[in-house]
Design a protein that fits this description.
The chain is an alpha/beta fold. It is 45% helix and 10% strand. Strand 4 (121-124), helix 5 and strand 5 (146-149) form a beta-alpha-beta unit. Residues 27-143 form the DUF218 domain. This is DUF218 domain-containing protein.
Length: 220
């Protein structure tokens, strides 16, 4: 069982990663795929509730999923959406990308190939990747307004019910730690726009790294 201090630190990262955007109707919903199929369900539900007329799934096999699945993430996520009632004709699939930057870039290229030019986007991602997804989208496609959302779960509920069964809560915390590090590193590498990280959040990150939650750090 996670001790109280680790739980407190992880909650700080979880809260920081959320953008807390209010939903607005858009021209397209872009689901950034991963190991978490709850994100597919969130994207499909947004479409079915009328938030946008086009549903795009972007994702091939990433660092985590290539050891879990052989089917591209986007194909799996799209099948979930169809099973929920989304018409196939309203779905686009980009299944070659391997990271968040490619998710956005390859989607941009796919839409151009199809002669489509949505003006506004809702990006759907895991709860603890909202901020990094926003920062990446704004870097790759700055002229397009975007809001970011995710499955609407508390940290405790997410850990207990909605993580991939092959990933433990400790794995998820380690991934969150890695995502925060990337928010710090990636702007200078040209991958994201800068995001302010409060001192207390960075201190929590460093304490978690020192506690061993360092398995998903990028090379500095």
């Amino acid at each position: 069982m996670m001790n109280a201090r680790i739980r407190e630190l992880a909650q700080m990262l979880w809260d920081y990663h959320h953008m807390n955007h209010a939903l607005q109707k858009a021209d397209a919903i872009l689901v950034l795929c991963s190991h978490d199929t709850r994100v597919a369900e969130r994207g499909a539900r947004l479409f079915l509730d009328g938030w946008a007329p086009l549903l795009i799934f972007s994702g091939g096999l990433g660092v985590i999923t290539r050891s879990m699945w052989t089917e591209p993430e986007a194909d799996l996520f799209a099948r979930i959406a169809v099973e929920m009632g989304v018409p196939q004709a309203h779905i686009l699939i980009e299944n070659q990308s391997a990271n968040t930057g490619q998710n956005v870039l390859f989607t941009k290229e796919l839409l151009a190939e199809k002669g489509l030019d949505p003006e506004t986007f809702i990006v759907v991602q895991k709860p603890y990747m909202e901020r990094r997804s926003y920062a990446t989208f704004r870097k790759v496609w700055p002229e397009k307004p975007v809001i970011v959302t995710s499955p609407q779960d508390s940290f405790d509920v997410y850990l207990s019910r909605y993580t991939n069964p092959e990933l433990s809560p400790d794995d998820v915390i380690s991934i969150m730690v890695g995502d925060l590090q990337r928010i710090r590193l990636y702007p200078e590498r040209g991958f994201q726009i800068p995001q302010d990280i409060p001192d207390e959040v960075w201190d929590a990150y460093q304490e978690l790294v020192n506690a061993g939650y360092n398995r998903h750090l990028a090379s500095a």
